[in-house]
Amino acid sequence: MEENNFIKEYQTEYFDLLEEFFEVFTNKSVDEFSTVRDISKNIRMFFLDLMDNIKGNKLRLQYVDMLEQKLNAFYEKHREKVLEIAVNVGAYKLLLCGGHAINLPQFNSIRTASLFADVILIPDSILPWFAEEKKNEKFKLANILKEVFSLLKLRELAETDYQTPQILVIPLPEEVYEPEKEVNPVTQAKYEVLVADFFHTFISREVSSYNAAIDFAEKHSEEFLEKADQFKLFVPPGRDPGLDLKTAIKKFKEDIREKRNKVEADTICAMSDQQLVLEGVLESLWPQIYMLENLDRFQCAPLLPVETQAHYSWLCNYANMEKLVDSAVLSSETIAFAQTLNNHKFITGVEYSMESLLEIKKSSAFSKLKEKLIMASGRLHRSKFFELNKVSADNLAEIYETLLAFDKELKPINEKFRMNLTEKKIKGPEELEISFSTGIAPFILNRLPFGPAKKLFLIKKDELREKQIPARSFLGISTRSA
Question: What is the tens place of the pLDDT at every residue in 280-299?
Answer without folding.
Answer: 999 999 999 999 999 999 99
